[in-house]
User: What shape does this take?
Amino acid sequence: MKKALSTLFFAAIMMIGGAAQAQKIGHIAVDQLVSLMPETEAAKKEIETFGQSLQKDLSDMEAELNSLYTQYRQNEAMMTELRRESEQKKIQDLQSRIQEYAVRAQELMENKRVEVLTPVLQKAQDAIDAVAKEKGFLYILDSSQSKGVVVYAGGEDVMPLVKAKLGIK
Assistant: This one.
């Protein structure tokens, strides 16, 4: 009985080991792939243009603040107490608006990055999925250095296959 169980156990281990060896596992540096895609450059330019627009608005607001503060300093001695308080309040309000704008601009920039890069990332993912299905990969792992997902890349590098699928040389 013991011999039959041990034979069965050994056979099961051999089958599991054989099945594991038959599974194809590949890897690809997704960050590198995305950087090679022509759509990425257009996306970067769109994000940069949007950022410059936000930065110009912020610079205009800061210039307005500087002008307001300079006028205040020049005329402060001639102002009544009530006028001085009113001008200080205007300066403080503008400072608060600038801070709020800067925070909101950061949020808008992040939203723009997501909006513009999502289609690029989806196209890369679709190509990876297509290669995986066509070539029979069970898993394709992201070996990008920024992800830290793959410590050892011993499987097949599918970068050439995905680049071909996307028409990238």
